[in-house]
Specification:
The chain is of the alpha/beta class. It has helices at residues 19-30, 49-54, 70-80, 99-104, 127-137, 139-142, 167-173, 183-192, 214-234, 241-262, 266-292, 297-321, and strands at 9-15, 36-43, 60-64, 85-90, 93-95, 112-120, 162-166, 197-208. Strands 3-2-1-4-7-6-8-5 form an 8-stranded mixed β-sheet.
């Protein structure tokens, strides 16, 4: 490719205070095939990210003095991009071999508007991170809503951790909204509103680094739940039944506990619900242990599932009475 020739794809990575994770992401992009450029938007980092980028050749770096959130930062990257395809990768992801090619190939098909990649288990992650990966991707816990083969419990919408669109469609959709969470789902819904399809590319695999502590995992799911409330206020299509299960589960649990304390017959219903949940938790534990090849996952996976559901549900309920997330 001549210096003045535009690349076929522009890969945009947004980072804030993730210097080491960003470095790993950029290393993984250096191994990709094809004609592409890499644009990194430093969204107000204070951990030396700018210094690291200045020393790295072949990367277009954009510095935001203060953080405006991931959506606006991606818009800045897209404005600088020269490629026909815009491919977004989160800074806590490492692209595996053939990722870029698998991301952009579906865009050659008429009617495809946005492509989402796949999250592959990183065997090198600590056990807790692998358990969180299982809970965020297993059909038993998220119903394949983030991708995967087979039926899904809700509409598939690509997430920004691995997302590709044509530049022209990005501009027609108006880019990302100024949301701190859920901005990617909001964006691809507007892509879909243009009459274009949202597709999953199972061969476009990334290792998505998970949160390292229970508190961080809970905070992440709380933010996701709160963002879902925000999205539902913007567009009723985001209020699918599957996303209502965690908040309704919390309300049901509280109601049954209160009723059982006052009305003895309600204890039968509460016991039946608790029994069904216990069976599901056993299935989650066994499946996780097999998938991760770790017996130590047996107690961790059910607990992670409960934290996931409770945190998401509380975030959703909080979002009903709060400002946009």
């Amino acid at each position: 490719m001549a210096p003045d020739d535009p690349p076929a794809a522009s890969i945009v990575v947004v980072a804030r205070d993730r210097r080491e994770e960003l470095a790993a992401a950029l290393d993984s992009l250096a191994a990709q095939d094809g004609s592409f450029e890499v644009i990194v938007v430093d969204d107000g980092s204070s951990d030396g990210t700018g210094t690291m980028l200045a020393a790295r050749a072949g990367v277009v770096a954009i510095r935001r003095a203060t953080s405006g959130g991931p959506g606006l930062a991606r818009n800045d990257g897209a404005a600088r991009a020269r490629g026909r395809a815009l491919v977004f990768l989160d800074s806590d992801c490492r692209a595996l071999g053939g990722w870029l090619r698998a991301m952009v190939e579906p865009l050659d098909r008429p009617g495809v508007g946005a492509v989402g990649g796949a999250e592959a288990l990183d065997p090198g992650e600590p056990l807790l991170g692998r358990v969180f990966h299982f809970v965020l991707t297993s059909p038993l816990t998220t119903g394949r809503i983030r991708g995967g083969r087979g039926g899904r419990a809700a509409k598939y919408r690509p997430r920004s951790y691995s997302l590709a669109v044509r530049r022209a469609d990005f501009e027609r959709a108006g880019g990302f909204a100024a949301l701190r969470h859920g901005e990617d789902i909001d964006f691809v819904t507007r892509i879909e509103a243009l009459g274009l399809d949202l597709v999953h590319a199972p061969d476009a695999r990334v290792h998505h680094r998970r949160r390292g502590t229970w508190r961080a995992f809970s905070a992440q799911l709380f933010a996701m739940g709160r963002a879902r409330s925000t999205l539902a206020r913007r567009d009723r299509r985001h209020l699918e039944p599957f996303y209502l299960l965690p908040p309704l589960g919390l309300v049901l649990a509280a109601g049954l506990a209160a009723a059982a304390a006052v009305f003895p017959p309600a204890r039968i219903v509460a016991a039946a619900v608790a029994g069904a949940l216990a069976v599901h938790l056993v299935v989650v534990a066994i499946t996780a242990a097999r998938a991760l090849r770790a017996a130590a996952a047996v107690p961790l996976a059910p607990l992670a599932f409960l934290v996931q559901q409770a945190s998401y549900g509380m975030g959703f309920l909080r979002g009903l009475v709060g400002r946009a997330a």
